[in-house]
Write a structure and sequence with these properties.
Largest sheet: 5 strands, antiparallel
Structural class: mainly beta
Strand content: over 45%
Helix content: under 10%
Order of helices and strands: EEEEE
Number of strands: 5
CATH topology: SH3 type barrels
Strand order of the largest sheet: 4-3-2-1-5
CATH architecture: Roll
Distance between the termini: 6 Å
Radius of gyration: 18 Å
């Protein structure tokens, strides 16, 4: 059996924290999200978000996914498909 996975790059806006002292005159850029990029194979893509895996382990009937990351839909700026990957499962 063959399955096709999508390898994608996700550009997403992340929250950040700071533990130091600051005053009200912070630079305007301090109030912006940190932009991040994640690359992986799409495990799930739903209205709530996208789950990526950076490792797979095909078995006889299923694909095992490892090193997973979930990005909520509201944080996603762009999803770009890099390529489709065909995975052959033993029958």
């Amino acid at each position: 059996m063959k399955k096709t996975l999508r390898l994608v790059e996700v550009l997403w806006a992340d929250a950040w924290t700071s533990s130091g002292w600051s005053d009200e005159d912070n630079e305007p850029g301090d109030n912006e999200p940190e932009m991040c990029r994640s690359i992986g194979m799409v495990m799930h893509d739903t209205k709530r978000g996208i789950t990526l895996a950076s490792a797979i382990s095909p078995s006889k009937s299923k694909i095992g996914f490892g090193h997973k990351a979930f990005v909520p839909r509201g944080m996603i700026v762009e999803v770009r498909e890099i390529e489709k990957i065909r995975v052959v499962l033993e029958e």
